[in-house]
Fold this protein.
Amino acid sequence: MGGRIEHRLPPGASESNAGRIWGYTLGCRLNSYETEALLEEFCRRCGMERTSDPGKADIVLVNTCAVTGRSTARSRKTVRALLKNTGALVVATGCVVQVIPSEFEGYDVLLVPNTAKASLVDIVCGEMGIESPEAPHSAEGLIFPAIAPERMSRTRASLKIQDGCDNRCSYCIVPLARGDSRSQPREVVIAQAETLAGAGFREILLTGVDLVGYGKDLYGETYGLPELVRELLGIGGFRIRLSSMEPMGLRREMLASLAYPGVCRHLHIPVQSGSDRILEEMGRKYTAKDISGLFDVAMDLFPGIGIGSDVIVGYPGETEEDFTMTMELISHPAVTYLHVFPFSPRPGTPAAGFRDSMVHPETVTRRARVLRALSMKKRRVFRESQLGTEALVLVESRKDEDTGRLIGMTDNYIPVIAPEGAEEGDLLEMTLGMENVCWDRR
């Protein structure tokens, strides 16, 4: 941990009003979910109030990300800036704290690793001398959090069903930061989803590190993601969107068993490379042909589907031929956008030692630029291909700057301008046209 912090009950606070809290997330959607869960727990258990101004906070919570060198640096700089510009107790948690706590050496910050997130509220309250009037929700046998947050959006709720990863890709720090794959028991997920449905959410995003692995640690091969999705749809009142699905273990049969009405026509499948040689060195247990086959099946099962993907450029030893193979794979018509990541050596991973075969930074930058340009082109081509089709649009709180009308999201991940008079949370059937598709928005 950082240096000893002598914080006590904030001025003007009492046992029933323990001051104000502000939170900040770096990195993935899973981190955002956990930050929101922690903030809600502080308010529910300790009577704290949330503030949008870190300068007015008594506790500042930073959830860090270590997936790349850039995200690690941003995490460190964010904590340093908050220490300099606020008088709050700064609490850092997340993946940097879990795997590289030395990044905060000498900082007057309370460090709480991922493995202690379930106890974070008690740790912080103990540090500040705040007594929690409500006992923590029993988390034995559960993955954090035991209670799904409800404030992330008034239209779309996230629901964490899994954490950790059993894959050991050579470049990836996630297993070190989050541990082995662990599933939330089905009865807990169902109960959380029923609560979210009762709160009026019209879409639930199932999230985790490796959704494809859901259930294997608890139920073997008898109950997995498809069975869970089927039960969740039985609750009614919402559609289901699936977050990132690792190709390892993703079979055509699973895609077929997920093709239910009510499952969004949108998947995110991180392929990382189109070169079989690079995929093997990465420890990715599939080939480019396997991925192309999955894309074909997905298009057949989910007409109008949009598939996003992650790609790493500049992996050690990547040649121009390897890069060309990646371009060929992600040129598949099912792929509608990309997240492009220049290779970043992560401490403790095998690829961090491949420095003799590192690709020149200028080459990496050029390849990333080419892929991002392709992503923008594919995004527009996909939206053009959907003109004239019918789609279910969930109206959100965002507004179109030109018309002042609300923006909604189709089930296949296209932002559109909602009709005049539409309200946040409406689920509308719309015909996509040039006049209502948001061409410049992600």
User: Anything to note?
Assistant: The mean pLDDT is 92.
